[in-house]
Amino acid sequence: MRLTAIGRTAVTATLVIAAAACGGRGESGGGQATTGAAQGQCQGQQTTGSTDTTLKLGGIYPLSGPASAYGDIPKGIKAYFDYVNAEKGGVAGRKVEFVVRDDGYQPPKAVEEARRLVEQEQVFALFQTLGTPSTTATWDYANQRKVPQVFVATGASQWGTDTEHPWTIGWQPNYVSEARVYAQYLKMEKPDAKVAVLYQNDDFGEDLFGGFKRAIEGSKVTVVAEQSYEVTDPSVEPQMRNLAESGADVFLNITTPRFGSQALAADAKNTKWNPLHIVNNVAASVTVLKPVGFENVQGVVSSSYYKDPNDPRWADDAEMKLYKEKMAQYAPGADPNIPYLTFGWAVASSFHKAMEAAPCKTREGLMESVRNLRNVQVDMLLPGVTLQTSADDAFPIESMQLMEFKGERWELFGEVIDTREEFGPLTN
Questions:
Q1: In the predicted model, is pLDDT for residue 14 greater than 50?
Q2: Are 198 and 297 contained in the same domain?
């Protein structure tokens, strides 16, 4: 979905107001905009949580509960901020304090924690609220308070299309674009595919599944069976048994980590059903696959947009070397080969670039920056993947590359697919 003409006007007006208050901006090399604002031109804008030397950010993650595997992400973020605090003078000259709260993947708890971070901790911004249900539950509050809710850890397409919540923006590729990548792959490689789908019964699952169904329209790829599950379900084995009876030759696995492992294990146990298994990116971590047994997940297909610390192609990559060195130094108890930690490093680096580019180091200035990213390079992203936003495009990353699990790691194949160019604009 793209913004409507009315929506573009609304967002553009917001940015024009912010730009006028900040006195405009120029651009420098590397695609990163620079500040030209005088100190006085930023007066009157919100600076809660920020001083000339400090910056407080708040993150909300499921450190417990059914999606607790994502608890590794804030470890990667904190290690990055600890590194830049100690060795780079912080972010925009400010030492970052990153306060993390646990919502257990429960939307009411997410609202409670958002209030605590904003009203008690007095954070400058909510940096990363994880999960579509939790972010949906909190974005009304964040926008009413005019608190930036930036680079949320969910690919729901609404973060880039809604015009009523200008203070919220995503980061990772949206689920509709990801679904289009899988649909295009099947149309090319298995044009008569019969697909069975398992999806989480919430905004996350419905967004990706809906995008897939729209992307295969007009082709011979068909969905022959679908099963949903609730995040409170103890297991997805009943759903997997039903899907196996469909005779589908492709299985699309739209799950979060815990249920992703269960679905992979159930698929491996059923020797009578041997579909091509596609697992969505959010459940594609090695930590999800390892409990199933690597021998049982050979040939599984997924997609990615940031570098995998387990891939030897990045062994001599400067950013990967830096990442592993600093993880050992600032998060010595963490395993740097866990991709969720790499995700955290990448999104923290993206925030660093956006905050440095902000024409005013204020809440308004940050939001202007994240909605005006111009081909910004982030070294932990795959080559060819950059941050790109504008007044009528609020999706920072819309490029992905397919990958297949071989041996004990993912192997990238094909080229990076820019869904903006390959598939056209998102539509309702």
A1: no
A2: yes
Spatial neighbors of 418 by CB under 8 A, at least 6 apart, are 384, 398, 399
Shared domain for 281 and 300, answered yes or no, is yes
User: Is the pLDDT confidence value at 35 over 60?
Assistant: no
Residue pair 301/402 in contact (Cβ under 8 Å)? The answer is yes
- What does residue 253 show for φ and ψ, rounded to 5 degrees? -105, 100
Q: pTM of the prediction?
A: 0.85
The terminus-to-terminus CA distance of the chain in angstroms comes to 5
Q: Which two tokens stand for residue 123?
A: 């954070």
Range of the domain at 326: 5-173+313-397
CATH for 272: 3.40.50.2300
pLDDT tier at 12, thresholds 50, 70, 90: very low
Residue 92: phi, psi to the nearest 5?
55, 35
Q: Which two tokens stand for residue 108?
A: 């009411």
Q: What tokens does 395 get?
A: 């999706």
User: Is residue 98 over pLDDT 80?
Assistant: yes
